[in-house]
Amino acid sequence: MLAIYGKHKNDKRFKGYDDSEGVFVTNRIHMTIYQDHQLKELEEYVESLNELNPGYVFEVRKVQ
C-alpha cells in the first residue's frame, strides 16, 4: 500500500495527505491509501503537485 506524504518547506515533519479533502492529516486513518500497482500514476501525480505548489514538498511512501 502507498500514500502521499507532504509538508510545507518550513515544517520539520511530513504528514499524511487526504487527497479527497486536499489537506494534511496527522492520523493515518484519514489519509488516502493507494494500491501498489498505482505507483507510476501516483509518482506522476506527486510530481504535478510539487510543480503546482512550490511552497510544499510531496512524496510517495510505502505504508506499513
Question: How does this structure look, described?
Answer:
It is built from one helix and five strands. The chain is α+β, with helices and mostly antiparallel strands. Strands 1, 2, 3, 4 and 5 form a five-stranded antiparallel sheet that branches. The mean pLDDT is 95. Strand 2 (15-18) and strand 3 (23-25) form a beta hairpin. The chain is globular and about 30 Å long. It has one helix at residues 39-52; strands at 2-8, 15-18, 23-25, 33-34, 56-62.
- Major sheet description: 5 strands, antiparallel
CA radius of gyration:
11 Å
Average residue-wise pLDDT: 95
Shape: globular
Strand content: 35-45%
Q: How far do the termini sit from each other? A: 8 Å
Number of helices: 1
Topology summary:
Layout: E1 2-8, E2 15-18, E3 23-25, E4 33-34, H1 39-52, E5 56-62
Summarize the structure.
By secondary structure, the protein is an alpha+beta fold. The chain has one helix at 39-52, and strands at 2-8, 15-18, 23-25, 33-34, 56-62.
